[in-house]
What we know:
This protein is mainly beta. Helix content is 3%, strand content 37%. It is globular, with a radius of gyration of 26 Å.
Amino acid sequence: MSLRFRLLTLTTLAMLSACGPPNNAERSVTTNACEVEADCPAAKTCVMGSNICRALQPGECRRDDANRCACELDSHCPDGFSCGGSGLCEVQRGEEGETPSEPEPEVPEEPVETDGCEFLSDCAISQFCHPTDRQCVELPNGSCRISEQCADGTCQIAEGREIGRCIVDNSCNSDAQCGERQICAEASCVDVQCRLPEHCRPGQNCEGNICVTPAPEPEPEPEPEPGNNEADDHGNNAVSATLVADMSQTAGRIEVGADVDIFRFVATISADYEINTSSNMDTYCVLSDSAEGLIENNDDGGSGLNCSITSRLEEGATYYVLVRHFSGNGTGDYTLNLLRGLPDQGGLADQGDSVDSAAPVELPAQVAGEITAGDHDWFRFTPAANGNYRLETTSNIDTLCGLLDGRGGELMADDDGGAGLNCRIETELVAGTTYIFAVRGFSAFTSGAYTVGIALAP
């Protein structure tokens, strides 16, 4: 993950800010605004809705380059790539002394008619017939129709299905039979973060197959300058950070030049958060997480010269916000605003990821959604009549779905009961009873758009 830094260096940031404002190049970069993926640096992705460049998360790839992925394990990377010490997927290296072989020439497939399809047999072996627009589309990653499409395994196709998944034989007797970043545990190859120090980022050690950053020597607190911020209203490091709620407004004051105020809060739900200031001065703010990483920084993204950051935060995680004057000599009063659950400003809306935040829908329903890596979408509905209902997804991705009661207890679940690799549930529902329909990707790394349909079965 790029632009990472330790929370303990927030104090260092406070000291460095005294050296004056960032140069013009810094001001242009910190905004991190984007409209498409190409507006972001190579290790970031454009967050739809907030239009902010965010660092790729482990297992997440850029939408315009499926090989540009962040990682902690080799399994986060596409075929032919492994997780490098930089935290990004890199082309796999051959064994020591091994000469890379010349790639086999590609054999072009016979041309396939593109004016539509009715059956799977109408499409090339690398495609399937899309159930909605009746066009031949490429199989999702990891899917197959024949074993020859699986480089290291076999194609497992469930009874009554035409499309399956590549299943890899992970059996082993020793670590030597496993991948570079795998160990043999209970006769199976299991992914680990590291086996050698070079699998970790610079400055980290491989301890117990986990990359560990040695604890730094504590830095001495700087001696306060005479008359410098003797009555500071908020802490200026992670230890003394002021605790605030995630839906709050907190008054602050930059009393002297180079002063910084640091706030700490815990996200109460997984949602999009907006963090900004209200003031008559030029503010600069930084959002960091408790795992020592920079999430975002901003100068003039808000009203006037105020800073503003929008980012999706996770329930239960601790976050830190740093506020200072853009000028190393500036002072003034401000209000820190922490807002959560803002509606999306573009793209597909988030459909909630818990019982409490499930998106309400009216039946019959056709609702668009989008799954990101590790995401779950929940929909709440109440049938007006007893009957046999069909709940399903329509998409080009591999979905899993579950039917829950109004308190989140699972009633039924399905993987590939629908068209292609989509899920489908058909069951009797009771009028006036509240249910929840939950949707996620089959893999933790599945992402893409889909449509939920809930209606009486035909």
